[in-house]
Structures are given as structure tokens and as C-alpha cells.
Write a structure and sequence with these properties.
Layout lengths: L2 E4 L2 E4 L3 E2 L14 H13 L4 E3 L8 H9 L8 E6 L15 H15 L4 E6 L8 H14 L2 E7 L3 H10 L4 E5 L7 H12 L2 E5 L31 H21 L3 H10 L14 H8 L8 H8 L11 H4 L5
Parallel strand pairs: 3-4, 4-5, 5-6, 6-7, 7-8, 8-9
Antiparallel strand pairs: 1-2
Helix pairs in contact: 1-2, 1-9, 4-5, 5-6, 7-8
Organism: Streptomyces dioscori
InterPro entries: Aldo-Keto_reductase, NAD(P)_OxRdtase_dom_sf, NADP_OxRdtase_dom
Keywords: Oxidoreductase
Length: 324
Amino acid sequence: MKHIELRDLNVSRIGLGAMGMSHGYTGAGADDAESVRTIHRALELGVTFIDTAEVYGPYVNEELVGRALKGRRDQVVLATKFGLISHTGRPGPTDSSPENVRAAVEGSLRRLGTEHIDLYYQHRVDAGTPIEDTVGCLAELVAEGKIGHIGLSEAGPDTIRRAHAVHPVTAVQSEYSLFTRDPEARVLPVLRELNIGFVPFSPLGRGFLTGTIRSTDQFDPTDFRADNPRFTDENFQYNLRLADQVAAVAVEIGVTPAQVALAWLLAQGDDIAPIPGTRRVARVEENTAADAVHLTDDQLARLTGLPPAAGDTHTESQMRIMER
């Protein structure tokens, strides 16, 4: 597995998103033992970058990751996120007040079974707390040794600049894939100007780009894709046709559509470390093998030239707390 630098943080260039092991998808959390095996297999394959968050579950995903990393903590760069749960009782969808940050980090450290979080992200920008106050608190946690690096998730250019002026930001995490190209115009140029790494989540379009989703009947009511605009009505059928074009490139190479989608992302720069999520050993083996997939210039051009996916990436209420 090749490695890259997120600013000055060395990580495998393909990481592992743990969310779906406990949260969000059909059957999530159904087999914790398989999820632990998946994490262990990822480490064997050279993955050193594991991503979770307190809100996944909530809490149980951090606990699961903590169990899986017991005795193996020194093998990984461990990332988690705060801000979508308020420990202060403040109403609203986000809370990044210094009081909440300090309460959140103590809980995450305990659940993860560690004394140190390598990369600590603000999960969504908090309109009720100046980013300078939040990052000032995070800088104190760096000085105290509780976290190593500061990250932001779904933050726009102005927020990134203001945060970075207080303390260097190591990485920004946003949705980015062949289906979601939003960061290219506004966010990626700022990150490269400031030497901040980029961590794409949902790099497989929430499963669409794997070629395995052919019907919304595959989702049970607890699956968060059931009301996602990209998976409803005519949007679903349109996006299936785009996924089929990715699958066609995969046939040319003799690999899987998921590997093509990840290889395309890796070709976008050596400052990008996607975190495809899975809870199955076979999938983590498939995803990590994308590190060795080579796309020709023609294939890259055809994939890059695909039209945008139909439908928003999130529901209307979720979109309101995202910056792009």
C-alpha cells in the first residue's frame, strides 16, 4: 500500500471508513465480529488510516473500533469527529462550542481506548460558534497531547481559511467521488494553496459506484439511502446509467467498478486519501487492491467527462449544515 502526506500526517492512501459497521446502512451493526475481522484484515493489507465519529450509532462505532484496535493502536492513524452531538444541552444540529469539544473528546478517548486521537475533525461547521473559538480549543487539545492534528468536515473556503489562520489544519473531509464533484471548483484549490490534505468520504457514491445496487428494494427502512435524493424516483434510474459506464471501464481492465472509482480518485492528486467504508473482509480486500489499478489517459478522460449525478447528496435538512 502506498502512502501519502496529509499536510505532515503520513497515511495509507486508501483508508477505511467505519461508519457503516454500526450506522446508516441496511443491516449495519448486524455482525460486529465480521466488522472487527474487516478492520484487522485492513491492517494486514497495509491500511493505516481508520475513520469513525461519536455520532455513528451514536457512540457504538467508536466502541467497536476501540475493541478492534486493542493491542494494535500503534499501527493506525486514528480519526474521529465531534459536533453533531451536544453534550452541553444546546439546541440545534451542531455544537462546536469549546465546552462541547472538551466533553466530546473525553468521551471519544474513553470509547476508543486510547490516550491520543491522531486526527480530530469538526463534523459540520457550527453557525452558532465562531470557527476561531472552536479551533482555539482544538489547539489547546493539541498542546495537551489529547489530539495530534485538526481536521474539518464539509467546510467551505472561508471557514477553512479562518480556521487555518488560528492553527494549521491538517485535513478536510468532504464527499467526493465520480458522482460528487463539488469540491473541485472551490475547496480543492484552497486546500492545495494552504497545503491541507483532502479525505474523500463516500468515494463509492454510497454503494452506487460498486455496481451492486440495482433497486431501491435492496434498502430496508432504516437505511439512510431510502430517502436520499440520489436514490429516489427518476434520479435512481439516471444514476444507474452513469454507474453502468463506470462498470464498462472496469470490464476493459478486468477489475471491479469499485476499484475503477477509487483508482480515478487516487489519480486526482497525491494529497488525497479516500476512506471507502465496508464491514466485510471481501470488500476491504477489493477496495485496497485499487491501489494497484492503473487507468489510461483515455479512461481517465472518459470517467472525468461523465455528467453530474442527478439529485442532491443529502436531504434538504442535512444540506443546510454543509458548506461546499
